[in-house]
Amino acid sequence: MLSLMSQYTVLMNENSHPLYIKPIKALTFGEALFDIIRGSAHLGGAPLNLAAHLAKLGAKPAVITAVGRDELGEKLISQAEAMGIDTSYILTDEKRPTGTVTVELQAEGIPVFTINKDVAWDAITPGEKEFEALFEEEWDVFCFGTLAQRTEENRKTLQRLFSEIKANNFFYDVNLRTGNYKKEWILSSLEYTTILKLNEEEATTISCMLSGTSGTCTPLTSYKAFCRLIIEKYPEISVICISRGHRGAAVYHKGVYEEVGTTPVEVADTVGAGDAFSAGFLYTYLSGYEVSKAASIACLLGTYVASKPGSVPEYSKKLMEKLKAQGLNLSLIKT
């Protein structure tokens, strides 16, 4: 795992927060697919959703993934480009189809996923030319999750990226999907993480893994104690962010544990809300703001997306005004 110092020129806003005048460069790795929700196809996959929301905020995201040589693959690349995502590292698989997921919405818009297997993003295997191009770049953050690690091919690719990519931060969104994760994948991922994001259920799952009580796992009673346990076992992790739905979020940084609230909304569906949360947190934190401010922005974006159908809805004028009122620098957004 290599790190670097970005050569950014920095300005200070009226609250003495550093504001980078060059866009944040983010690279995401993993699944890119279409979510089939109530019969309609929506661009999806956490890495792609994250990149799309980062682009909406003014970042420069790229995605490493794979699509099939089919109509859906062409549509995915076209839509990703239209969203401002660099598609240079999206591979085309000659044998496997573009991934799809059937999403059934339960009470309060909670999604249940049926994730098809043996699809293009199950084999994200760049050639040497693509690897060399990736390793020549300097990234502010490399983002990855758990789902794409379900295949050996992807785990090998991810290990090479961990070893050779030049990135300031390694962001792990745990994002567990039933039947698509193993303890060893998660614990191995934590070894390379500098910023950890997870939800309440995932925090409980990992706590039980670390304590060896997976068979009798009970909900956490102290997120602060959990964060301390994580930092003790994985000292490279500098920031932990726990999304808590309508209860807001909890963050841990430099020994300080904080909780931030959020405003309840009427939920349309929660597909993509966690990815919007991640984008808001990353963009704000990497722009130089405190973790509590980053968590507040994350909650604002996450609840907004939960109130709208689809994983990457258009940002309303009212939302943009709220983000600006929070002090977020949005000068790099292309209009």
Q: Share of helix among residues?
A: 25-40%
**DSSP, total strands:** 15
Give the CA-based shape.
globular
CATH class: Alpha Beta
Distance between the termini: 36 Å
Strand content: 15-25%
What's the pLDDT, averaged over the residues? 90
Report the structural category: alpha/beta
Largest sheet: 9 strands, mixed
The CATH architecture assignment turns out to be 3-Layer(aba) Sandwich
**In CATH terms, what is the fold-level topology?**
UDP-N-acetylmuramoyl-L-alanine:D-glutamate ligase
How many structural domains? 1
CATH superfamily: Ribokinase
What does this structure look like?
With 335 residues, the protein is α/β, with parallel strands linked by helices. It has a single domain, classed as UDP-N-acetylmuramoyl-L-alanine:D-glutamate ligase (3-Layer(aba) Sandwich). Helix content is 35%, strand content 24%. It is built from ten helices and 15 strands. The chain has a nine-stranded mixed β-sheet with strand order 7-6-3-10-11-12-13-14-15, sandwiched between helices. A four-stranded mixed β-sheet has the order 5-4-8-9. Strand 6, helix 2 (71-82) and strand 7 (90-93) form a beta-alpha-beta unit. Helix 1 (46-57) crosses helix 8. It is globular. The model is unreliable at 2-14 (pLDDT under 50).
Essential attributes:
single chain, 335 residues, alpha/beta, UDP-N-acetylmuramoyl-L-alanine:D-glutamate ligase, nine-stranded mixed β-sheet, four-stranded mixed β-sheet, 10 helices, 35% helix, disordered N terminus
Summed up:
The chain is an alpha/beta fold and 335 residues long. It is built from ten helices and 15 strands.
